[in-house]
Amino acid sequence: MRKAFSMMMAxxxxxxxxxxxxxxxxLSSKITTATLTQYQKEQAILLAKSYTEYAIMAAGANxxxxxxxxxxxxxxxxxxxxxxxxxxxxxxxxxxxxEVNIGYIGNGLKCSxxxxxxxxxxxxxxxxxxxxxxxxxxxxxxxxxxVNSHINNTDMPPWITYHRRTIQKL
Length: 170
Prior knowledge:
The protein is 38% helix and 29% strand.
C-alpha cells in the first residue's frame, strides 16, 4: 500500500510539473512575440524620425525657387526581398520600406504642381517687404511586415504602416 501511494504521488507531481512547463513555454512564446512586435514598431518610429531629419536637410540644401526641389525620398532598410520584376513589389523579408513625400508651401516656387500645396500669398507672409522662406510638410511612411508571419502563411501578410507628418520652416 505504501509503495503504491508513493508511485501515485510521483505520477501526480510529474503531471503537475508538465502542466506548469506547458504554461511557462506558452507564456514565453507570447512574451517573445510581443517583444519582437514592440521592437519592430520602435524601429519604425526611429526610422521615421531619421528620414524626417534627412528630408529637412535635403530640402534645405536645395533651392525650391529655382526648381531644384526634393519631392520624394525612398529607401529599403534591412532584409527586403524584391519581386522578380523589381517593380517595387515585395515578396518577402523582414525589412522596412520607407517613403518620404515633401510638399512645399510658398510663393514663386518652381517645384512640380503636385508637390506645391499653396502658391498664393494667403499663407506665406512678408516682413518688411521680404517674403519669408517657404515651409515644407514632410510625410514619412515606414512599412514593414509582422514578425514571423511569413513562416506560417503561404500568402504574405499585409504591410503595417507607421506614418509621421512634420511641418518645417526652411
